[in-house]
Amino acid sequence: MVQLLKVHGSQNSFFLLDQTQLNQTFTQLELVNLAKQLTNSHNLLNGADGLLVVSQSFQPSACAKMQVINADGSIASMCGNGLRTVGRYLAEKYQQQNLIVETAQANLRVSCQPDWAPHVKAVSVEISPVSFQQQDLPFSNLGKKELINQPVPEFAANLKFTAVAVPNPHLISIVSANLMQTDLLKQLGTQLNRPNPYFPDGVNVSFTQIINHQRLFVRTFERGVGFTNACGTGMSAASLVHALTYPQNSLFNNLITVTNPGGFVQTIVHQDNNHYWIELIGNATFTHYIEVAENELHQNVIDFTKFKVKSTVENQAYQEFIIKH
Ligand SMILES: N[C@@H](CCC[C@H](N)C(=O)O)C(=O)O
């Protein structure tokens, strides 16, 4: 039997598959097919935003490798909320509080934190590398090599935008509470995630509202998914943009709270020798343990009636915790 987990970070939900337990490793095509079927809301536990795949790492410092597959089958170089849950999974597997996990572009630090409440586990992860360079997003036809807090009339009148890779691509705008209520984020997210002249690989689009300089609200239309309850790399990128936009507020190295439709996280933006990186701290919740025979997962069309699902108490604990905060 194979064990899958259903997990979430700020209710950005995923299935988690540890490939090291399989007799027959999946091909990339099989993984994409599996991701599309598992995330479909009609199949199992209302679907999810993506699939997190854990595999063996051949990097000496890393205990495992994480791959992220979006609901539409596209591959992402990073996922902040996902890395927290993978980090917790690996911490429990290897009985270690501090780990390094290999991701598509970097080996990243993960560290278990004190529980936020009974059954609300918390994990801190490193978000890096950060780049504003056009080729790292990539973007084109904007007449610039970097887009940092600048107007882009092609995207929206009266807003400023920053494009930043952390290392997955994000487009961030700081907006008013009123603008947050409009359909603009959906329109822009949709436009930039189908063939478009500006972001050939698509982009995660986030609007950020400053509640005060210690508290932001961030909403994200994700590449390969659409609206999610939260996007960990999006909130990290938004925290960096916030710190850079208000240098007079000395926002580096300070813990700030970033709320989102699924709860909240905390971030700390760092600058070391001209390199930025962000610490992302938040819940790592396991909502279900799922068992299925390995051969069922290798089928082209998966029979979800063959899956045995056991729920945990963690989602209820998380919901109660969020209501109080
Ligand atoms: N939800 C994630 C980001 C997942 C990947 C993203 N959709 C992309 O394609 O870059 C997070 O928590 O960071």
Structural summary, described in words:
The chain is α+β, with helices and mostly antiparallel strands and 325 residues long. The chain contains 7 helices and 19 strands. Strand 7 and strand 8 (120-127) form a beta hairpin. The longest helix is centred in the N-terminal third of the chain and has 15 residues, at 80-94. It is globular and about 55 Å long. It binds ligand LBFN2T5F. The site of the ligand N[C@@H](CCC[C@H](N)C(=O)O)C(=O)O has 18 residues, from strand 4, helix 2 and helix 5. It comes from Lactobacillus bombicola. It catalyses: (2S,6S)-2,6-diaminopimelate = meso-2,6-diaminopimelate. Its EC number is 5.1.1.7.
Brief sketch in words of this structure:
The protein has 325 residues and is of the alpha+beta class. It is 21% helix and 38% strand. The site of ligand LBFN2T5F has 18 residues, from strand 4, helix 2 and helix 5.
Proportion of residues in β-strands: 35-45%
Computed Rg: 19 Å
Identify the quaternary structure here.
single chain
CATH structural architecture of the largest domain: Roll
Mean pLDDT across residues: 97
| Beginning-to-end CA distance, first to last residue | 39 Å
What number of structural domains do the residues give?
Answer: 2
Could you estimate the helical fraction of the residues in percent?
Answer: 10-25%
Basic shape? globular
- Tell me the structural class: alpha+beta
Distinct compounds present: ligand LBFN2T5F
| Assigned CATH class of the largest domain | Alpha Beta
Largest sheet: 19 strands, mixed
Q: Write out the CATH superfamily name of the largest domain.
A: Diaminopimelate Epimerase, Chain A, domain 1
Number of helices: 7
What's the CATH topology label of the largest domain?
Answer: Diaminopimelate Epimerase, Chain A, domain 1
Report the count of strand segments.
19
Note the run of SSEs as H and E: EEHEEEHEEEEEEHHEEEHEEEEHEH
Task: Return residue spans where pLDDT drops below 50 for at least 5 consecutive residues.
Answer: none
